[in-house]
Structures are given as structure tokens and as C-alpha cells.
User: Fold this.
Amino acid sequence: MILIEQTYLIAATPAQVWQALTDPEIIAEWSGADAEYEPSVGTDYALWDGTITGGVLDVVPFKKLVQTWKPKDWTVDNSVVTFTLTAEGKHTRVDLLHENVEPSDFDGTREGWNLYYLGAIKKMLEAGTPLKRTAKRTNAEKKRGAPKKNKSGASY
Assistant:
């Protein structure tokens, strides 16, 4: 089995890193593409406009996220990614374990985690850019592009 193991130290709280890993609006900020993600065991997700798909296998909020990983061009069907978050002072250590990586894409995948995924999250969070405030929108609001509303009903 081909593995990728990487560690990132991000100047952000585990909650902020967790949000960047699981909130579709924040994922779109650092990835530059649409995402569908619900951090619940058994749900499916899609990243980069659906070019990467998978399912959520384990969720321990702010601590651990395990998901399958399937780029459209991979033949490997049982690739698994585990993110483990640990608070370290004013930082969060993110340990990445990517198991069963497509052999022909090992170098690109290893580099991609740094350039386009965890490296991009680190860059966004450490730039001091405030994360968008998120609120669940109804499907009707999403379809018509209605502004989100906070708990008091004000639009933002």
C-alpha cells in the first residue's frame, strides 16, 4: 500500500481548520472551485467541481476526519485520507495520512496536498482573511441566490 504522511502547523484554532476542511463555502475560498461537503458519517462529498469524490467514514469534530478519496482519473477505489487535528498553543497541527494512493499519481498527489489542499488552507488562514460566516441556506434560497440570514433575520 502506498502512503503519504505529512504534517502541517497552521496558525489557527482547530475550529478554524475544521471549518476549512468541512464547510463548502470555505472550501470554495481556498480551492477556487465548488464543493459539496457534509461532515457526517456515511455522506458523500465532491470537491473541485466534482473531480474528486468520496464518502465520509469517521468524524470527531475539531479532531479527526476520515474520508475516501477518488479522483476521476484514478483506478484505485479504496484510497482513504485521515486528517488528525491537535491544538498546539496558538496553532493546530494537522497530521495527514493518505492510504492507498494511485501509484502513477504518487508524486502529484503528495505535491498537491501541499500546493492545493492543506497548504492552501494554511495560506488562507494565516493570511488573516476572516472566514465567511456560514449559515445553512434552504435549497430555495440557494436556487434563487437569496442572501443568507443570521439568527436575527438580518441579511449578510
